[in-house]
Amino acid sequence: MKAFRLILKGLGAVVLLAAIVVGLAFVPGIQTWCAQEALSGHPGLQGTVGQFTATWGTVEVTDLQLKTEGAALTLPSLTADLPVVADLRSRTLRVHHLEAKGWTLDLTHRPGTLAEAEATSSVSSQEVSTAFQGLLNQWALPCDLALDGVDLEGDVLVPSAGGKSHARVHVTLRGGGLAAGHEGTFVLTATSTVLDSQMQVTELSASGRLAVTLATPRTFRRLDLTAEVSAKGGPFPAGLTLATHATAQAESTGESYALALSRGATPLARLATALTANGSQLAGTWTVNLQDSDFAPFLPDHPLPGFQVAGTGRFDCDTAFSRVHAAGDLTAVLSRLDALTPALGNLGSVNLTAGFDARHGGRLLRVERLSINLTGTGPTAALRLLGPCQWDERTGHLSPLGATANGMAVSLRRFPLGWIPGLPGGLAFTSGTVAGEFVLGAEPGGFVLQPSGPLRATGVTLQQGGSTVVQNVDATADLVAHDSPAGWQVAAAPLRLTRRGQPLGELTVQVAHPSGQDLAISGKGHADLRAVGTADAFPGLRWLAGRSASGEFTATLGEAPSWSGKLALPSDDPRDAVTASFHFDVGSEGGVAFLVPLKLGSGETATDLSAEGKWSQDENGPRLYLKLNGENVRLENLRLLAGPLAQAGHAAGTGAAAGSVPGPFWGDWVGTLQVAFDHLQAGTQTYGDVSATFEVDHTSVRLEGGHVMLDAPRAARLEGDLSFTASAKTPYQLKAAAAIDPFKAAQFFPATDGAAFPVIEGRIAIAASAAGSGADLPDLARRTETTFQLTSTDTIVRFLNTDVHEAIPQVESSRMADAVGTVGSAFGTLFGMNRDGRGAAKSLLQPNTDAVIDFTRDAAELGFDTATLIAVRDAAGNFHLTKIDLIAARERLTGTGQITAVPGTALRNSPLSLDLRFGARGRIARLLATAGLLSDQKDERGFSLLREPVHLGGSLAAIDTSAWHRLLVQAAVPRAAPKKKKNP
Fold first, then answer.
1. Exposure string (b/e) for 283-320, b if CB count within 10 Å is 16 or more?
2. What is the pTM of this model?
């Protein structure tokens, strides 16, 4: 008994202890602590719970907050009605009612880009394979589930496009009836008032019905989702509704899935696939039926071409997607293709049919069938695979499969060149079609492109940066291409160019890329420049002179591209012939350094130049630095460089649209031009040490530091500015100035006809200025005047020297002869003088004759303190002497004149015409008065003026003083003595 009582006491203590433990389990504080510990036991999850209460049949949770990477859940309250004891005993979860309202799911902190999302996780191919080994089987539940009713309502915060704001989506989920063998249905709604500030969608809503059927209390048999999404506002003013239907169903042979998308009653796409029973392969079919109106609402600011696409096909793959097989057929109708590029605007409607059957596995693409046909009112094109082939992604090599015909047959008819994108150098086709047939065949390790005949392109127009490079040209070419492990090459032998049937030229080009080496290009060709100029096929080459062009070139395009070659431009006129060799190096930043030795002209009149510099481009446009060096340069040859220099700046007028304002002749060129010539021949004149710097921008050409050695040690310094204003009536404006070092006048006015002394002596300084305006360069040349100002001090002139004694009648010849015989040696040329015993001169002639003779002696050599001459040169080369002013103490010469230009005649030999006024005072004035040559007029300086102007003709090299001589002879002729009156 005593032992039995002890056993009873022990059992009672156990029951009592059990009762105490069970009671504590229902204390809210203990339950909350256990729930918090359970949350803390999940790595990667941060969570807090305000209170957790579980009673018989009810669970309540308040203030639950869960955070994980990219998402945060705030749940004010959750209530669930469930039989706890039954669930613990049978591992069954039967929820009579689940209710949670007012919750917020924040998804705005999820990775913002796909790359960020991929960076946060790494999914192996095995995990992907597992994910597709039965979608429904993988969702097996850990316990038996039954859900009688659910009522969830809350908000989901999603980021908008760009991630700078977010949208709040209100979500409700209500339904129930989920149990084994029964279909549970749930209704989902979601609404949002603002989706995206950029799209400006004002209302977005979604509603759907989800039907779930359990095969067993823990496995799914079928999922069926029907949903509609509606949007209004922004690009959808009339509203947009898209419907989708997705199903997943477990079957005895595996699982099947279907997804259909429609817009209203119009089906857009359908995908149906099935997973085999062993979960190793997916296979299915696809269907599409789309048109441009299905996408236009989503791209309101981007006009789309018109299209209608329909197609069906099939596919199969393993669950890891390491092997994919797809086949199908598509048909499409395309229109409004100018939305892609203006060059396609005249193509009208185009029909497209295509079929394919391809497999991809490892890194090999095997194509069993491929055909593409393009037809329409304009272009047609066909591509057909002749036999199975395989392409290796790692090597890029194409190889045939089997012994049947291999390769790809391509046929083109009126195929638009504008469809070819991505041409190098910013080039783009704006018109033109191509026609031809060729076969792309496989060969060991590569392929060969062999034409069935020449490719023919018609109406080709090519532009670069808005300027036309090639205009309405036809071309034919025999293209051959090879690809092998040793590399690839393409050859056009030859490429012939014509315009309206007229041959323009031809070019043979070969492009090769040996394995492991730089891309190499070589070519040679010739062109008929007369035909090119007549056809106006190359607007950018209008500057080319000559009858033909020929040349060759080689290039390597690698890390340091370079070009070398030769060019010859012969001409009927030897002065227009040009030959050149060139070498270009392209820098890492795109700049081009070049060296171009040139020969302008031919024979003895040729000019050898070296052009070197650099071309570059920045945000302000192209910039060119060019230096021209030469030993013996002819100015007339340099005109051949005007065209290339303008083209170097992409001359604005090259491809200007009709009605547009043309730019200056130097185009868009901005940069520096330096010239350095040892000798420069301009006409009959040769100048030494010619150097200058020209700074060029979009609206002006500025000359700085110009230097010309006229003859040692005489030099000229020049500066000027040529500006261009497109809106002006005469756009070109020229202002220039030059200064010439003082030089000895005797160099320009040497002694003539055996004279001992030059006609003019002294040191002359010259300052020149030029100004003009014009609509173009020829007009500017016609309207430009050059003004020269010559100044001198201590000038001696001898052009008034003349001998009158032989023209005077011999009156009292014996007495005059005696007088001549007695003249001293210092006055050996003096006529009609004698001396009396006192040494005083005594004239035997009349006073007027004696005065003229005395004056000619003084006028034979006149010294002037200052001398000024202003000459204006007109467009015809004539010099108008607008001011002549020579001043001394007793003499002054003023007047005007002209030197008339004669083609091929030097200035000093050109016709001269001067009209001068001679002024005098003192002794010279008295002599002229005695001779009867002086008038009563005086100039502003008080010089008495000769009664008649002094006219000089001839030329600067041989001044004609005949009119001056006649004037003096008439004044020196003896006058008849007055008759004496008889005494009455």
1. ebebbbbbbbebeebeeeeeeeebbebebebebbbbbb
2. 0.55
